[in-house]
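Reopening this one. Same input as before:
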Amino acid sequence: MSIGALASGALITTLGAKPLVWLCGAWLLTLALLTTANRAVRQAPPAGTTPQQKAISTAETENMAS
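Same output, byte for byte:
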């Protein structure tokens, strides 16, 4: 945490507060768009499930639809 505080202080001193906020916002937006475009992330099972649980829930969903 101390390294982050030093780095953020140096960046604010170098760039200024407003440009740094815009830069960080642009970076977070880029990460969000890249993550959304990643098929492996979009098709990942819900957190905390095992592959076997995913297969069971998929089979249950298919049975309900038919």
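So the earlier flakiness isn't reproducible anymore. For the record, The CA atoms of residues 22 and 28 lie 10 Å apart.
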